[in-house]
Amino acid sequence: MIRNPELRDKPLGVQQKYIVVTCNYEARKRGVKKMMSVKDAKEKCPQLVLVNGEDLTPYREMSYKVTELLGEFCPLVERLGFDENFVDITEIVEKRLNQLQQSGWSGVGVSGHVYNHQAINLHDTTHVRLVIGSQIAEELRGAIYARLGLTGCAGVASNKLLSKLVSGTFKPNQQTLLLPESCQDLIRSLDHIQKVPGIGYKTTQRLEMLGVRNVCDLQVFPSEVLEKELGVSAAQRIQKLSYGEDDSPVTPSGPPQSFSDEDSFKKCSSEVEVKEKIEELLPNLLDRIRRDGRQPHTVRLTLRQFSSTNKWFHRESRQCALPPHLSQKFGKESSNIISPLVDLLMKLFRKMIDVDLPFHLTLLSVCFSNLKDLPSSKKGSIGFYLKQMSPPSGSGKREVEDVSQSEGSASWNQNCNSTSATKTRKLPEEKQSNIKKAGIPDFPFHLAPGDIDQEVFRELPEDIQKEMISENPAGIPPGDVLGGLSACFVEVVPGASRAGGSPEGHGNPGTSSSSSLEAGAGRSVPWVPLLGKDKEAFETACEEKTYSRQAGIIFPPHVDTKTFYELPADVQKELLAEWRSQEPVLIPLAHLQLIKMLKISSTQDVSVRST
Question: Catalytic positions, please?
Fold first, then answer.
């Protein structure tokens, strides 16, 4: 009615599909009710004007504006759905009470109605506090109307439960004050146990099986029997509610904890239809997440199957963690993420529905939750050193394409184009001879020669060289092997030859030269036999990788699992959090060696200091 003021005095309903989800008071006077079918509503009120309410964006935006406005008066504001808010005004009341005590009691009067028309006792400080609360409530409603053009009702009471129940006593655009003496009258006026906020549909069913149908039944029901049926905590909570007792605090809502959207319909009975419904829900959801700025890490699919006896409440859900490569795409171009999300949601759907048998759905809902702020690197964190780092001035230029992983895969394998250039140097002949005697090849056999600084490798301690050699993936056959891709930053000498034998491109002194490899296209390198300790190290590494898969932990490339498990638990958690929240990164070889040399005993204390 704000957008179309001419509809203000006409019977108006908001339509979603074939249902009137809500209506104004003019329509209610003519017999129209919430959740009534459009057909029945039109029969009740032929003059009913219906507006499309499929897009909830304007309602949602206005709802947040109301909450934000209330927050300007008081910080303790808790959202309840689109159109309700709890506000804890205790602190404001106490300030005004002190002012009244200093200036006298003149001007103390109730704003709005008093439940049961009960008389106010100004000698009772509880009554006075509630009277002041009614004045504040009127001020809040006035501010909402003046700034947003919205009318509304309010309830003033000593807790959340009672204020919600009493708020609807006088409608529309009015408010009601509940005094403590009238609390039981209000509670016992509820004709059904499910009218008590906090007692849901399933709890109501269990209570009805025990013979509890209204508030009076619940108040006198034996606590021992109730605790045995519902558990001690739930039984005590709902019995307190039946007496109007609610000690739950008003908790500021903050940003939304999840984003969801749903669609109801008369019938959906094929996979093709389900897929289309999901595709229709996703664009609006992705846009809301993009504007929020956080990344979700969990997705849930909810459906409702048709039931003639359980029309509204028979819902079933399945959820799963979003693969890291999908979480990182939120907030970017939505068209690139819709297809893999649909595939993931269809997998959840097939876990609930046997598609080989007939099915009849009446609702589908998609929800993204576990929202987290975008990760930020801070020096001093171990994860800081695992991020992509710019090469030093005068070093080779690094170009990396986005990594794409198959949907549903938790692999950290990186298929990417990397740039590398090598500077050839000669080691002393004596050192080369010692390396050959020790049985250590010129470079790890699972890395292509052009993808590693051989000098850095040769100058590493012997045990670290063997450790790198032992990281060959299982199943490499004898003979030629495909070199895996690795990125390294090295200085470039113009005109020098690549280790792989391919000629360098010409360049000016001080510039970078690059070479890129297509994913999966390795170079042939000689097979290096594993003998003695090398073979043992290789078998150990394979066992550790197998264990990490069984444990559900997938490590980035070149991370020593043995070293990882020797780190303190808090350091392990920090590293895992960093790996899960970010795209796979390429680690400069120099930093890789630094990480590999962090051999920390599990019995030692570790302190990290950044400079």
Answer: 84
Q: Quick one: tokens of 275?
A: 């897929």
SS3 (DSSP) at 6 = helix
Q: Which pLDDT score is estimated for 558?
A: 63
Give the C-alpha separation, 405 to 519, whole Å. 12
pLDDT digits (tens, 9 = 90+) for 307-345: 877 665 678 999 999 998 888 888 777 678 999 999 999
In the DSSP assignment, the letter for residue 451 is G
Phi, psi of 200 (to 5 degrees): -90, -175
Please state whether the peptide bond connecting residue 172 to the residue before it is cis, i.e. omega within 30 degrees of 0.
Answer: yes
Give the DSSP letter of residue 89: -
- The torsion angles phi and psi of 116, rounded to 5 degrees, stand at 65, 10
> pTM for this one?
0.56
First to last CA, the chain: 61
Pairing, β 315-321 against β 298-305: antiparallel
- Residue stretches of the chain with pLDDT short of 50: 377-431, 433-451, 472-550, 583-611
What's the token pair of residue 553?
Answer: 């932990």
With left for phi above 0 and alpha for psi between -120 and 50, is residue 104 left, alpha or beta? left
**SS3 per residue for 504-531:** CCCCCCCCCCCCCCCCCCCCEECCCCCC
- pLDDT of 139 reads 95
Beta bridge partners of 155: 176
* Residue 170 CB contacts under 8 Å (≥ 6 apart), including other chains: 112, 113, 153, 176
pLDDT of residue 341: 95
Residue 470: CA count within 13 A, CB half-sphere: 26
From the list 213, 243, 226, 288, the residue with the least C-alpha distance to 58 is: 288
Residue in the structure block whose two tokens are 């897009």: 55
Q: Say which residues have a Cβ less than 8 Å from residue 274's Cβ, sequence separation at least 6.
A: 268, 346, 349, 361, 364
How do the residues of the chain divide into helix, strand and coil, expressed in percent and rounded to 5? 40, 10, 45
Cα–Cα–Cα angle for 144, 146, 147, nearest 5°? Answer: 70
Is 472 exposed, middle or buried (CB count within 10 Å of its CB: 0-12, 13-18, 19+)? buried
| 201-209 and 223-230 helices, crossing angle to 10° | 130
Give the closest residue to 611 by CA, choosing from 389, 380, 387. 380
As a whole number of angstroms, the distance between CA 512 and CA 517 comes to 17
Structure tokens at 588: 């400069």
- The answer to whether residues 303 and 345 touch, using CB atoms and an 8 Å cutoff, is no
